[in-house]
TrEMBL record:
Organism: Trichoderma guizhouense
Region (Disordered): 298-327, 444-466
Pfam families in UniProt: NAD_binding_4
Statement: the UniProt record of this protein carries the keyword Phosphoprotein: yes
Protein name: Thioester reductase (TE) domain-containing protein
InterPro entries (alphabetical): FAR_NAD-bd, NAD(P)-bd_dom_sf
UniProt keyword list: Phosphopantetheine, Phosphoprotein
Length: 493
């Protein structure tokens, strides 16, 4: 598929949207109203918790797919309890709307769709996550929903900030645009849909800026000093549990890869100078909420290391002078979050926490062995869902000097990330998503001597009405024990 052709079509359609500039009375200090999609997903519930704990956010409106409002509210509550932030007072400021990303205008009632014009900040985090689905299958929920929200944002006289949370494969540091597009065209539909949506978000920002520049005297006569409008894409790398709880998403590629490596007794090794973009879910959620907060207040408290930012026809997100003066010029921003660690250190932390020494293989050899394992065990194998997307590397190639620079820049955070990796492994082992050998061996033992419980009796069931707190039952070899695995459904919204 030519992803550029699809993107061009959507950008053309967006260009036909009527664009309204902010009214002079739309930037008061009444408190912010935020619309969040994907609030019942793994990252989404943590973002919701951060927004709820920020009392400068007056109202948080969330979109939930459910049969009725009671079921939707219970889902929100249950997921928040699992994530550890729930308070009984939450619904005093959290308003639940029934909707469906795959439906026109997000499946909202006409009244609620009209109310989007009064929203200050949109955080579009919801998406269908299915690595086996084609772009055509995912386009309606993952691209059309973005298009409709951007239409509403451009037509609004109230909106300050539109934040799109992207995902899928990243552009390598030394990868040209042409090489990246070729990789996308050969990639799975999820990455393709995320790319189209993120580029559509940036295009909306550029369209808005063109109107601002064409409006004679607008900046001096109609726009107050703090009257900005920002269109922002935030693209995290792999998202894992934090250092405290380690609560991890068992549907994520990286943990399926790790579980498969333990099952096989070996792991695929990247070259020495490969970097892994990986961050704790709480860090990413705080970062997203902070970006919204920067547009709510003139300044924000507490330092946070910014991600690496790529600005293609984009202006700087905000300068220190702008923050001090309370001014935010219209911006189009792409944040590529590069918090992480060398791939080798990731695998070292994995093995150290499990107290096991995995055999190191090159990717081609490892994939060959993985395919044989998956062919034998079918759906019971943790690599089953990602088999077609294995390789050619886990991280991104950067120079040895860049590895050194990043490691020095993030010296204080490398320990935090390693601790999060360890805690996540501990959590995943405790729920037996990662299954260690029956007889624990030392770090010096040989994988050839390991034995694992059979998964032939595995019974996997899921409640379609749940998202983060989806239940799965996994039987041991004797079928005596069952474990609840915290994961998200393939439908994140």
């Amino acid at each position: 598929m030519d992803i550029s052709t699809s993107l061009e079509g959507w950008v053309t359609r967006l260009g036909n949207t009527s664009i309204n500039l902010p009214s002079t009375d739309s930037w008061g200090s009444r408190g912010s109203r935020v619309l969040l999609t994907g609030a019942t997903g793994y990252l989404g519930t943590h973002i919701l918790g951060e927004l709820f704990n920020n009392h400068q956010v007056r109202k948080i409106i969330i979109l939930v797919r459910a049969a009725n409002i009671d079921i939707a509210r219970e889902r929100v509550r249950r997921v928040a309890v699992t994530a550890g932030w729930w308070k009984e007072s939450a619904f005093s400021r959290i308003e639940v709307w029934l909707g469906d990303l795959a439906e026109p205008r997000l499946g909202l009632q006409e009244e609620n769709w009209a109310r989007i014009s009064n929203i200050d900040t949109v955080i579009h985090n919801g998406a269908v996550v299915n690595y086996s689905a084609s772009y055509d299958v995912l386009e309606r929920a993952n691209v059309v929903s973005t298009f409709h929200l951007l239409e509403a944002a451009l037509q609004s006289q109230q909106l300050r900030t539109f934040i799109f949370i992207s995902g899928g494969i990243k552009q390598g540091v030394h990868q040209s645009d042409e090489e990246y597009l070729r990789a996308l065209n050969e990639s799975e539909g999820y990455s393709q849909a995320k790319y189209v949506s993120e580029q559509l978000t940036l295009a909306a920002g550029r369209l808005y800026n063109e109107v601002v520049h064409r409006s004679s005297g607008y900046e001096d006569e109609r726009e107050p000093a703090n009257g900005s409008r920002t269109f922002m894409v935030i693209k995290p790398g792999y998202i894992i549990g934090d250092q405290v709880a380690g609560l991890s998403n068992t549907d994520d590629y990286i943990w399926r890869l790790v579980a498969g490596a333990f099952r096989m007794g070996c792991f695929p090794s990247d070259p020495p100078d490969y970097w892994l973009d990986i961050a704790e879910v709480t860090y990413v959620a705080k970062y997203v909420a902070r970006q919204a907060q920067l547009r709510i207040t003139k300044s924000a408290s507490g330092p946070m290391t910014p991600p690496r930012s790529i600005h293609s026809d984009c202006s700087s997100p905000s300068s220190d002078d702008d923050r001090e003066n309370g001014t935010m010029k219209p911006t189009v921003v792409f944040h590529d979050m590069s918090r992480g660690l060398p791939v080798s250190e990731f695998w070292n932390a994995i093995q150290s926490q499990a107290q096991l020494c995995l055999k190191q293989l090159d990717w081609d050899s490892w994939i060959g062995q993985a395919n044989a394992d998956v062919d034998r065990d079918k759906e019971a194998h943790p690599l089953w869902a990602i088999q077609l997307h294995l390789g050619p590397a886990l991280g991104d190639r950067i120079t040895a000097e860049e590895v050194k620079i990043r490691s020095m820049e993030e010296f204080d955070t490398l320990g935090e990330i390693e601790a999060a990796v360890r805690r996540s492994v501990e959590y995943l082992c405790s729920i037996q998503f990662i299954v260690l050998p029956v007889e624990e061996e030392s770090l010096n033992s040989s994988p050839a001597n390991w034995s694992y419980p059979s998964n032939s009796d595995t019974d996997s069931s899921a409640d379609d009405d749940e998202h983060l707190a989806q239940k799965r039952v996994i039987g041991s070899a004797q079928g005596k024990h069952y474990h609840t695995i915290i994961s998200r459904s393939k439908l994140r919204y």
